[in-house]
Amino acid sequence: MISLIVPVYNVETYLEECLDSIQNQSYTDLEVILVNDGSTDDSQAICELYCQADKRFRLINQSNQGQSVARNTGVTASRGEFIAFVDSDDIIKANYLEELMKYMSDDIDIVESIFTVLKKDFLVENSKETEILFEGNSQEAVKIFPNHVLSVNPVTKLYRREIVEVVPYLEGFIFEDIYSGIGMLKYIRKMIKIDYVGYYYRQHATSTMHRTFTEKNLDVFVVCDKLIELYSDSEELLPYIGKYLVHVATMHYQDYIQKGNPYAEVYNQKLEEYVTITKKNSEVAKSSRMIRLYKLCPRYYNTILFPFYHSIWKWKNSVKEDKIEE
To answer: Which domain, by its residues, includes 58?
Structure first.
Protein backbone atom coordinates (compact mmCIF):
# COMPACT_ATOMS: atom_id res chain seq x y z
CA MET A 1 0.00 0.00 0.00
CA ILE A 2 1.06 3.57 -0.69
CA SER A 3 0.54 6.19 2.00
CA LEU A 4 0.02 9.50 0.25
CA ILE A 5 0.61 12.41 2.64
CA VAL A 6 -0.84 15.86 1.97
CA PRO A 7 0.06 18.80 4.26
CA VAL A 8 -2.82 21.30 4.14
CA TYR A 9 -2.70 24.97 5.06
CA ASN A 10 -5.12 27.65 3.79
CA VAL A 11 -5.47 26.30 0.25
CA GLU A 12 -9.25 26.32 -0.20
CA THR A 13 -8.88 27.75 -3.72
CA TYR A 14 -6.87 24.78 -5.03
CA LEU A 15 -7.56 21.96 -2.58
CA GLU A 16 -10.46 20.26 -4.36
CA GLU A 17 -8.54 20.07 -7.64
CA CYS A 18 -5.64 18.48 -5.77
CA LEU A 19 -7.77 15.94 -3.90
CA ASP A 20 -9.75 15.06 -7.03
CA SER A 21 -6.50 14.18 -8.78
CA ILE A 22 -5.58 11.92 -5.87
CA GLN A 23 -9.01 10.32 -5.63
CA ASN A 24 -8.96 9.45 -9.33
CA GLN A 25 -5.67 7.56 -9.24
CA SER A 26 -5.57 4.38 -11.32
CA TYR A 27 -3.48 2.83 -8.51
CA THR A 28 -6.08 2.24 -5.81
CA ASP A 29 -4.22 0.47 -2.99
CA LEU A 30 -3.53 3.63 -1.06
CA GLU A 31 -4.40 5.64 2.01
CA VAL A 32 -4.52 9.44 1.86
CA ILE A 33 -3.48 11.24 5.02
CA LEU A 34 -4.52 14.88 5.08
CA VAL A 35 -2.67 16.86 7.75
CA ASN A 36 -4.50 20.13 8.35
CA ASP A 37 -1.83 22.42 9.77
CA GLY A 38 -4.10 24.93 11.52
CA SER A 39 -5.90 26.29 8.45
CA THR A 40 -8.11 29.33 9.07
CA ASP A 41 -10.06 29.15 5.79
CA ASP A 42 -12.41 26.37 4.57
CA SER A 43 -9.62 23.84 3.97
CA GLN A 44 -10.62 21.67 6.95
CA ALA A 45 -14.26 21.52 5.83
CA ILE A 46 -13.18 20.48 2.33
CA CYS A 47 -10.95 17.74 3.77
CA GLU A 48 -13.84 16.46 5.90
CA LEU A 49 -16.06 16.12 2.83
CA TYR A 50 -13.50 13.93 1.06
CA CYS A 51 -13.02 11.80 4.18
CA GLN A 52 -16.78 11.23 4.39
CA ALA A 53 -17.00 10.29 0.70
CA ASP A 54 -13.89 8.07 0.49
CA LYS A 55 -12.77 5.78 3.33
CA ARG A 56 -9.19 5.87 2.05
CA PHE A 57 -8.95 9.51 3.16
CA ARG A 58 -8.04 10.34 6.79
CA LEU A 59 -7.80 13.79 8.36
CA ILE A 60 -5.43 14.86 11.12
CA ASN A 61 -5.89 18.35 12.57
CA GLN A 62 -3.04 20.09 14.33
CA SER A 63 -2.09 23.63 15.31
CA ASN A 64 -0.03 25.53 12.76
CA GLN A 65 3.53 24.20 13.02
CA GLY A 66 4.79 24.26 9.46
CA GLN A 67 5.02 21.91 6.49
CA SER A 68 7.86 19.80 7.87
CA VAL A 69 5.96 19.00 11.06
CA ALA A 70 2.88 18.19 8.96
CA ARG A 71 4.89 15.79 6.81
CA ASN A 72 6.41 14.10 9.86
CA THR A 73 2.97 13.83 11.47
CA GLY A 74 1.66 12.15 8.32
CA VAL A 75 4.56 9.70 8.18
CA THR A 76 4.05 8.71 11.82
CA ALA A 77 0.34 8.09 11.23
CA SER A 78 0.83 6.22 7.95
CA ARG A 79 0.68 2.44 7.48
CA GLY A 80 1.88 1.93 3.92
CA GLU A 81 5.02 0.15 2.77
CA PHE A 82 5.59 3.09 0.42
CA ILE A 83 5.17 6.83 0.94
CA ALA A 84 4.54 9.74 -1.43
CA PHE A 85 3.98 13.43 -0.74
CA VAL A 86 1.72 15.81 -2.62
CA ASP A 87 1.48 19.51 -1.83
CA SER A 88 -2.14 20.54 -1.34
CA ASP A 89 -2.19 23.09 -4.17
CA ASP A 90 -0.59 20.78 -6.74
CA ILE A 91 -2.07 18.17 -9.10
CA ILE A 92 -1.00 14.67 -10.13
CA LYS A 93 -1.92 12.75 -13.28
CA ALA A 94 -4.35 9.86 -12.97
CA ASN A 95 -1.61 7.28 -13.60
CA TYR A 96 1.02 9.03 -11.44
CA LEU A 97 1.29 6.47 -8.63
CA GLU A 98 0.85 3.55 -11.02
CA GLU A 99 3.74 4.77 -13.17
CA LEU A 100 6.06 5.22 -10.18
CA MET A 101 5.17 1.78 -8.78
CA LYS A 102 6.24 0.13 -12.04
CA TYR A 103 9.86 0.88 -11.11
CA MET A 104 9.70 0.08 -7.38
CA SER A 105 11.42 -3.33 -7.35
CA ASP A 106 12.88 -5.13 -4.32
CA ASP A 107 16.20 -3.27 -4.27
CA ILE A 108 14.86 0.20 -5.16
CA ASP A 109 14.20 2.68 -2.34
CA ILE A 110 13.27 5.85 -4.29
CA VAL A 111 11.64 6.37 -7.67
CA GLU A 112 11.75 9.98 -8.84
CA SER A 113 9.84 11.56 -11.72
CA ILE A 114 9.73 15.04 -13.25
CA PHE A 115 7.46 17.92 -12.36
CA THR A 116 6.39 20.92 -14.41
CA VAL A 117 5.37 24.44 -13.36
CA LEU A 118 3.46 24.90 -16.63
CA LYS A 119 -0.06 23.52 -16.55
CA LYS A 120 -0.25 23.24 -20.34
CA ASP A 121 2.76 20.89 -20.28
CA PHE A 122 1.17 18.87 -17.49
CA LEU A 123 -2.02 18.39 -19.49
CA VAL A 124 -0.18 17.04 -22.55
CA GLU A 125 -0.64 13.30 -22.94
CA ASN A 126 2.71 11.53 -22.99
CA SER A 127 2.61 8.87 -25.68
CA LYS A 128 6.31 8.03 -25.74
CA GLU A 129 7.79 5.17 -23.75
CA THR A 130 9.15 6.23 -20.37
CA GLU A 131 12.95 6.34 -20.24
CA ILE A 132 15.19 5.86 -17.22
CA LEU A 133 17.29 9.00 -16.74
CA PHE A 134 19.31 7.70 -13.80
CA GLU A 135 19.73 4.40 -12.00
CA GLY A 136 22.31 3.96 -9.30
CA ASN A 137 23.25 3.20 -5.71
CA SER A 138 23.79 5.62 -2.83
CA GLN A 139 27.30 6.72 -3.79
CA GLU A 140 26.41 7.16 -7.46
CA ALA A 141 23.35 9.22 -6.53
CA VAL A 142 25.31 11.56 -4.23
CA LYS A 143 28.08 12.00 -6.80
CA ILE A 144 25.66 12.92 -9.59
CA PHE A 145 23.52 15.19 -7.40
CA PRO A 146 25.58 18.38 -7.97
CA ASN A 147 24.88 17.96 -11.72
CA HIS A 148 21.18 18.64 -11.01
CA VAL A 149 20.01 15.31 -12.41
CA LEU A 150 18.18 14.58 -9.15
CA SER A 151 15.98 16.91 -7.11
CA VAL A 152 15.79 17.82 -3.40
CA ASN A 153 12.03 18.29 -3.71
CA PRO A 154 10.08 15.84 -1.49
CA VAL A 155 7.27 15.62 -4.03
CA THR A 156 7.47 13.79 -7.39
CA LYS A 157 8.95 10.77 -5.61
CA LEU A 158 7.86 7.40 -4.30
CA TYR A 159 9.79 6.26 -1.21
CA ARG A 160 10.18 3.02 0.64
CA ARG A 161 8.96 4.10 4.07
CA GLU A 162 12.20 3.16 5.92
CA ILE A 163 14.08 5.82 3.92
CA VAL A 164 11.69 8.58 4.99
CA GLU A 165 11.78 7.41 8.61
CA VAL A 166 15.56 7.44 8.84
CA VAL A 167 15.77 11.11 7.77
CA PRO A 168 12.79 12.99 9.27
CA TYR A 169 12.10 16.46 7.90
CA LEU A 170 13.88 19.17 9.89
CA GLU A 171 11.30 21.10 11.87
CA GLY A 172 11.35 24.85 12.36
CA PHE A 173 13.50 25.67 9.32
CA ILE A 174 12.90 26.75 5.74
CA PHE A 175 14.97 25.18 2.95
CA GLU A 176 14.69 21.90 4.88
CA ASP A 177 14.33 20.07 1.55
CA ILE A 178 18.07 20.45 0.99
CA TYR A 179 18.77 18.30 4.04
CA SER A 180 16.14 15.63 3.49
CA GLY A 181 16.52 15.43 -0.28
CA ILE A 182 20.26 14.73 -0.13
CA GLY A 183 20.31 13.15 3.32
CA MET A 184 18.08 10.28 2.26
CA LEU A 185 20.52 9.35 -0.49
CA LYS A 186 23.01 8.26 2.16
CA TYR A 187 20.76 5.37 3.18
CA ILE A 188 19.34 4.10 -0.10
CA ARG A 189 20.42 0.89 -1.75
CA LYS A 190 19.39 2.11 -5.17
CA MET A 191 17.16 4.73 -6.82
CA ILE A 192 15.73 5.45 -10.25
CA LYS A 193 14.71 8.67 -11.98
CA ILE A 194 12.31 8.40 -14.90
CA ASP A 195 11.49 10.73 -17.78
CA TYR A 196 7.84 11.07 -16.85
CA VAL A 197 5.97 14.31 -16.12
CA GLY A 198 3.10 13.39 -13.81
CA TYR A 199 3.19 16.25 -11.31
CA TYR A 200 2.07 19.86 -11.68
CA TYR A 201 3.89 22.10 -9.19
CA ARG A 202 1.99 25.33 -8.65
CA GLN A 203 4.21 28.35 -8.08
CA HIS A 204 3.12 31.29 -5.95
CA ALA A 205 4.56 34.72 -5.20
CA THR A 206 4.52 33.68 -1.50
CA SER A 207 6.62 30.55 -1.97
CA THR A 208 10.02 30.35 -0.28
CA MET A 209 12.02 31.33 -3.35
CA HIS A 210 9.83 34.36 -4.04
CA ARG A 211 9.98 35.96 -0.58
CA THR A 212 11.86 39.13 0.22
CA PHE A 213 14.90 38.67 2.43
CA THR A 214 14.48 38.19 6.18
CA GLU A 215 16.81 36.70 8.78
CA LYS A 216 14.83 33.46 8.36
CA ASN A 217 16.52 33.02 4.98
CA LEU A 218 19.74 32.31 6.88
CA ASP A 219 18.18 28.95 7.76
CA VAL A 220 19.67 27.78 4.50
CA PHE A 221 23.11 27.67 6.14
CA VAL A 222 21.88 25.86 9.25
CA VAL A 223 20.37 23.23 6.96
CA CYS A 224 23.49 23.01 4.78
CA ASP A 225 25.75 22.64 7.83
CA LYS A 226 23.55 19.83 9.18
CA LEU A 227 23.95 18.10 5.82
CA ILE A 228 27.73 18.42 6.06
CA GLU A 229 27.57 16.93 9.54
CA LEU A 230 25.49 14.02 8.25
CA TYR A 231 28.12 13.20 5.60
CA SER A 232 31.15 14.04 7.76
CA ASP A 233 32.00 10.33 8.08
CA SER A 234 32.46 9.97 4.31
CA GLU A 235 35.64 11.57 2.96
CA GLU A 236 34.77 10.32 -0.51
CA LEU A 237 31.30 11.88 -0.72
CA LEU A 238 31.78 15.09 1.27
CA PRO A 239 33.42 17.03 -1.61
CA TYR A 240 30.34 16.35 -3.76
CA ILE A 241 28.14 17.73 -0.98
CA GLY A 242 30.39 20.80 -0.86
CA LYS A 243 30.10 21.26 -4.62
CA TYR A 244 26.31 21.33 -4.42
CA LEU A 245 26.35 23.72 -1.45
CA VAL A 246 28.55 26.13 -3.41
CA HIS A 247 25.70 26.25 -5.90
CA VAL A 248 23.18 26.82 -3.09
CA ALA A 249 25.18 29.64 -1.49
CA THR A 250 25.81 31.31 -4.85
CA MET A 251 22.23 31.21 -6.08
CA HIS A 252 20.79 32.30 -2.73
CA TYR A 253 23.12 35.27 -2.74
CA GLN A 254 21.91 36.26 -6.20
CA ASP A 255 18.25 35.72 -5.23
CA TYR A 256 18.24 37.48 -1.88
CA ILE A 257 21.16 39.78 -1.21
CA GLN A 258 20.83 43.35 -2.41
CA LYS A 259 23.46 46.07 -2.18
CA GLY A 260 23.92 47.08 1.43
CA ASN A 261 22.31 43.96 2.91
CA PRO A 262 24.07 43.36 6.26
CA TYR A 263 24.20 39.59 5.68
CA ALA A 264 26.21 39.63 2.47
CA GLU A 265 29.36 38.78 4.41
CA VAL A 266 27.66 35.75 5.97
CA TYR A 267 27.01 34.41 2.46
CA ASN A 268 30.61 35.05 1.46
CA GLN A 269 31.94 33.28 4.55
CA LYS A 270 29.76 30.21 4.05
CA LEU A 271 30.65 30.09 0.37
CA GLU A 272 34.35 30.03 1.31
CA GLU A 273 33.69 27.14 3.72
CA TYR A 274 31.88 25.11 1.07
CA VAL A 275 34.59 25.72 -1.53
CA THR A 276 37.17 24.52 1.01
CA ILE A 277 35.27 21.25 1.42
CA THR A 278 35.54 20.55 -2.31
CA LYS A 279 39.33 20.92 -2.17
CA LYS A 280 39.48 17.46 -0.60
CA ASN A 281 38.94 16.20 -4.15
CA SER A 282 40.61 18.33 -6.82
CA GLU A 283 38.67 16.67 -9.64
CA VAL A 284 35.35 17.60 -8.02
CA ALA A 285 36.50 21.20 -7.61
CA LYS A 286 37.68 21.39 -11.22
CA SER A 287 34.36 20.06 -12.49
CA SER A 288 32.45 23.09 -11.15
CA ARG A 289 32.42 26.32 -13.16
CA MET A 290 31.28 28.18 -10.08
CA ILE A 291 34.29 27.02 -8.07
CA ARG A 292 36.67 27.81 -10.92
CA LEU A 293 35.22 31.30 -11.13
CA TYR A 294 35.43 31.71 -7.38
CA LYS A 295 39.12 30.84 -7.35
CA LEU A 296 39.85 33.59 -9.90
CA CYS A 297 38.85 36.28 -7.44
CA PRO A 298 36.94 35.27 -4.28
CA ARG A 299 36.44 38.89 -3.19
CA TYR A 300 34.39 39.85 -6.25
CA TYR A 301 32.88 36.46 -7.09
CA ASN A 302 29.35 37.19 -5.84
CA THR A 303 29.19 40.82 -6.91
CA ILE A 304 30.93 40.84 -10.30
CA LEU A 305 32.28 37.52 -11.62
CA PHE A 306 29.27 35.27 -11.19
CA PRO A 307 26.63 37.88 -12.14
CA PHE A 308 28.58 38.59 -15.35
CA TYR A 309 28.97 34.88 -16.13
CA HIS A 310 25.30 34.22 -15.34
CA SER A 311 24.08 37.05 -17.58
CA ILE A 312 26.14 35.66 -20.47
CA TRP A 313 24.78 32.17 -19.79
CA LYS A 314 21.18 33.41 -19.81
CA TRP A 315 21.79 35.38 -23.01
CA LYS A 316 23.27 32.35 -24.80
CA ASN A 317 20.38 30.15 -23.73
CA SER A 318 17.79 32.71 -24.82
CA VAL A 319 19.47 32.83 -28.24
CA LYS A 320 19.29 29.03 -28.46
CA GLU A 321 15.59 29.11 -27.57
CA ASP A 322 14.92 31.76 -30.24
CA LYS A 323 16.65 29.62 -32.85
CA ILE A 324 14.61 26.58 -31.85
CA GLU A 325 11.37 28.59 -32.16
CA GLU A 326 12.38 29.82 -35.63
So the answer is: 2-200
